[in-house]
Amino acid sequence: MSDDREGSVLLEERISVPNPAVCALPVLPLESTLVFPQVVVPVVVSQAQAQRALEAALAGERMVLAVAQRSVDRTVIAAGDLYPMGVQVRISRVVRLPDGSCNILAQGLWRAAIDAVLQEQPYLYARIQPLPDPPERSLVLEALRRTTLALFERVAALSRALPENAYVAALNVEAPGLLADLIASHLPLELAQRQQVLELTDVEQRLRHVAALLMREVEVLQLEQQLRAEVERAVGHLQREAFLREQLKAIQRELGQSDPWSQELAALQERIASAGMPPAIQSRAREELSRLEAMPPGAPEFVLARTYLDWLLALPWQQASDDQVDLQAAARVLERNHHGLTRVKERILEYLAVRKLNGPQRRAPILCFVGPPGVGKTSLGRSIAEALGRAFVRISLGGVHDEAEIRGHRRTYIGAMPGRILKVMREAGTVNPVLMLDEIDKLGRDVRGDPASALLEVLDPEQNHAFVDHYLDVPYDLSRVLFITTANVLDPVPDALVDRLEVIELAGYTEEEKLAIARRFLVPQQRLASGLQHTPLQFSEAALRTLIRRYTYEAGVRELERQIGAVCRKIARRVAEGRPYPRRIIPSLLPRLLGPDRYDYGLAEERDEVGVATGMVWTANGGDVLPVEVSVYDGKGNLTLTGQLGEIMQESAQAALSYTRANARRLGIDPRRFDKVDLHVHVPDSAVPKDGPSAGVTIACALISALTNTALRRTVAMTGEITLRGRVLPVGGIKEKVLGAYRAGITHVLLPKKNAHELDEVPRHVRRRLQITYIEHMDQVLRLAFVVNPLDTPFQTRRRARKRADTAQPQRAPEAAESAPRALLQAAERNDDA
Question: Measured in whole angstroms, how far is the alpha carbon of residue 604 from the centre of its chain?
Fold first, then answer.
């Protein structure tokens, strides 16, 4: 059931019918319209159940109850699908249409409520209770009637949808309730709002409600009129501007002058033809140019379209630099710019060799340099570009947390721009630059997306040949770009991104490498930067070593460069002031120039001590040695761990203690002693967090030393993870740890056997000067790390020695009492050896 949209809701003369009374009538469901009392409405009847009700009414007095449906998608209407109140209607005209539906003219009589539903099939039939308006008149109703008429007059003046005679018909209505119904039938209300008016049987409430609806409609129509006037003014201005522009063109043609805009369009056309774009993208550019040509320069979208075209034309589509395939020349460039880094240089030369054999059509790998700060990752990218003869561009990803920084913004946003990838491609000017993505491990993420996920397409050789930036919205080929990424650590980088990278680790420089870098690069650069290139100034080798050891603590050479620069500036000031200055920098001058020492690098212990084991550590600043101290005192078997140890390192200490307790008798320790003493494990340098499993062997040795009162060798340093069975497992950072032990004066290093292959990365002169032993079990460690092997003294011997020491202790002087236990223990050990 629906209303006829081509018809109009009209008020005819007051319909005259017998007095309303309770009766039973067929129910006519209305789908999307509603009939008000004393209003004539054309209605189309198409639903089968409604047509049967119409036929029943036509067979009788042509009376029905017209009720609105709550839902319009019902094919079978039940009593619960209708509103409880409708209008008693008389059918005055019926026109049958070819599609089987009927067009009727329904004359509303009065409100009527459904009292009881007598049947639902084949059509709804119900007993109704008529609710006519009472014939009351009052001052309040008259005031409301006049207010409503005044508001309706304003609506009729502002609205273009109301019939012309709607306000005149309203003026001829005297009854207040009928006036409210008439106005509600003309207002553009939803079906639920019309039903709300219909259900208001109190005339005063109905007039107040309709007046509120008219007030809201007046406000909407006024705002609509204001917006329409603004649009008309804007359109009129644009039309006038276009007309004047056409007149200007005509005048210029008469004067024989050319149009600058036409010349610019022709230039854009030529640039599109010569840009070398793929056919699909060139077609897109021509479409955008056609839109731009039809657009007046003052239009808001003119600047957006012109900027988009400029970006399409500024990007390199075919321009490529020729790669240098001279491997010897490339090797000389790498060697001239960087000291060491053998593996990295070999990988670059391998890439050049493969490219020379296969040609430039092969997709380039994605290299990732991982290493601590200051080891030359970024400068290495510049050297690669120089060796290849390519342009070098760089993107710093530190702190980037918006996906649009990589893929750009869509053009629907205000101020939209392409992402950083296409910006640097425009800067490079070629399709095959060396593009460095610096600090890839510093990427962030928030509600605006994950930049690391956006890089998956950029850094995938199988996908980046059709990279789509949100701003350009066309595929761009990145497959010929040599991507190089850098990171300090790979832990924050997603696994899916790491899988696309060829990781090349750059370890920290050794002291010898730093010394060579300082002589070859840093000193000449800082002399030049300080204006001392013509001043005789030298740095002795001892001074450079002192700078490396005492004034810097890093894996790279950045701080070393600053300190050398500070020395050069001090000398430059003296030269500029005409004062005497030293021609040769020696270690004794450094405190006067730079102040006291800033760092104290790890050194081996001065003597063999009990409860102190020397471990090897690996930090972001390189390798070093670190003592592990254990103290034993009376207690209840508690273990205390200090030194800001991480969870993994704490678990290693627990494993070391468990191994010691499980092997107590073999080590000569009374098992009952663990319940009578407390153990305190401390790792110095408490301000620095420490973690990792590699200190397990060191902690175990320190525990055994303290519990057996046996000294550890000060010249032995160790590393390795310990298991409960005493097995020694491999750890990381072997090269850095060995170099740190070598610098500290250690002569003997204990390494897990499974780490033996990593010693190839340690410089040969370091391996020659160190005694390196590979270990698989703690028994080997005890034999090599202790002055006296604890396994050589059984528990019974140590127990007898302690008893003899306790018996002899009261009869000796205090100083003799302190040395008696150790003397008796050594005597017992000699007897056991015999």
Answer: 46
